[in-house]
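Write out the 3D structure for:
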Amino acid sequence: MSKNRSNHDDLAGYFLRAAGVAAIWIDEGGHIGATDVATIDDQPGRIIYCCLRGDHFRLSYHLYEWKQSVQAGPEAIARKLEEMAAGLEVGLTKHHTAVARARAAVAAVEDAFEKMAASGEMRDWNAAFKEARKADPSIRYQEFVQARKAAMLEEVARWANG
């Protein structure tokens, strides 16, 4: 994997955390799991959905309770999860869609950076980096830029959850 792709994946993962995106998964054996923070990783053998943090506990609990009284395969469990989410008015998104949205947010931030560089707006950021570097010589420019991009992604996440 290229370093640029790795940075984009790191930022996409950061966006999912900042946006409060949690995950619920169903594995091949019909086991249900939930995690506070969705990742961008594809997990073969699992059906994964994303929702806002907090809703994942509620949904997984109701799904687990339902599952105690039935024998169902992963696809049937997934359909029941979708039905429960609709009934509880919880937004539920397939994992691949949530990851695509996170990557789109990163692309928007990258585009904004390119436009700022082309228009000369990066001068202010470069001056801020030089000041930060005076205070802490160990700061590297790439880390500084990544932190700025992360801050922009946080803004996008706040707007998305608005």
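DSSP finds six helices and four strands in the chain.
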